[in-house]
């Protein structure tokens, strides 16, 4: 995408790339008044001048790269609808600047080609209030650019254009009353043209199969394996070998030994709790329709506000775990919870924003927005984190069900699959299998400039993902305990991560 003005269309001001701020164009029309071939501007390029030739070359290159216009009327995206295979109609919130075509009129990305420019737009407003807004793009070679007539042959820009090239831009507007569409469902014609819903049901079924498989494994361990193990451990015989301990019971006196990196682990647990609750609440509101595409920017705003307000549970969880690990540097713990993870994210964000600033891109976040984000972080999130940590440290430390041995037990030699890295990889494969289809739809919507709206599916997949991660962690932790691995704190966290 590129700004309407950056490719020198009806303005010399370049707004940069991927413009997110809504700009008011110079298109004026009156409600219920039909406009036909109304001129917007005429651009003149003298190919003998290096500056004009560069602008014209960039205009042609933007068509080759499929740069798009994105317009909004009454908070509704102006859509370009066209028929695709199987008799379906596809609506895209945007239309191309132009297209490359061969000399016989067929669109083709080739080397010896001409360029056909979109320089006339027909905007059709279907009104009951404003039900929806569609448009069709045309290309006309106006004989007299000062008094355009939208009935000529298409406007072509030859790759060998020499001399002066004049391009007149026009638009037309028509109004049509639509009685069958309600205001609440005016977005349906866009959303219903998205990829088929039955594929998403396939992703849900795929995720449920994985969850059922893991649930069966966990149930088998809990109801069968552990039951037999406990019965065997509690068996009272007269022989000396009957009281011999083996398996996971051997490490019961070491399993609650404080981890080596208890400070970092508690900080990551607190930040993870903050992100988990934020994601759950955001998707829940989106599932209820509060964060629909009609509320522009509502999803990101909701996520940021929730993250700021959830500093209290982050500080509380971090403090509780750090105290249970026997930590005494409570000030360091609170400061790291407040600044470590958010600081890493903000540093990456700020560096990328600096690059965008340096390139003059309009995708760069304004300085005022950065100041507002920092104010929310330092003035709201950090104090709330301190409050949560205060209540967490006031609580008694979490009591462990068994006493920890004074002398750590030596860990036996491990097989390949019980080592940390293979276990972490295996623990991530199954959760990824639950979400990869939904992830495909999300990324495809981003890359195809479509609107992702299946928040109900996404919320359900998120719940399945949480269950899958929990069950995979239970399984892998049990297998590692059976292998007499005692460093289970960091391992279980990395599997969940």
TrEMBL record:
<comment type="similarity">
    <text>Belongs to the nonaspanin (TM9SF) (TC 9.A.2) family.</text>
</comment>
<feature type="transmembrane region" description="Helical">
    <location>
        <begin position="363"/>
        <end position="393"/>
    </location>
</feature>
<feature type="transmembrane region" description="Helical">
    <location>
        <begin position="297"/>
        <end position="322"/>
    </location>
</feature>
<keyword id="KW-1133">Transmembrane helix</keyword>
<keyword id="KW-0812">Transmembrane</keyword>
<dbReference type="Pfam" id="PF02990">
    <property type="entry name" value="EMP70"/>
</dbReference>
<dbReference type="GO" id="GO:0072657">
    <property type="term" value="P:protein localization to membrane"/>
</dbReference>
<dbReference type="GO" id="GO:0016020">
    <property type="term" value="C:membrane"/>
</dbReference>
<feature type="transmembrane region" description="Helical">
    <location>
        <begin position="453"/>
        <end position="479"/>
    </location>
</feature>
<feature type="transmembrane region" description="Helical">
    <location>
        <begin position="424"/>
        <end position="447"/>
    </location>
</feature>
<dbReference type="GO" id="GO:0005737">
    <property type="term" value="C:cytoplasm"/>
</dbReference>
<protein>
    <recommendedName>
        <fullName>Transmembrane 9 superfamily member</fullName>
    </recommendedName>
</protein>
<keyword id="KW-0472">Membrane</keyword>
<feature type="transmembrane region" description="Helical">
    <location>
        <begin position="334"/>
        <end position="357"/>
    </location>
</feature>
<dbReference type="InterPro" id="IPR004240">
    <property type="entry name" value="EMP70"/>
</dbReference>
<feature type="transmembrane region" description="Helical">
    <location>
        <begin position="264"/>
        <end position="291"/>
    </location>
</feature>
<feature type="transmembrane region" description="Helical">
    <location>
        <begin position="201"/>
        <end position="223"/>
    </location>
</feature>
<keyword id="KW-0732">Signal</keyword>
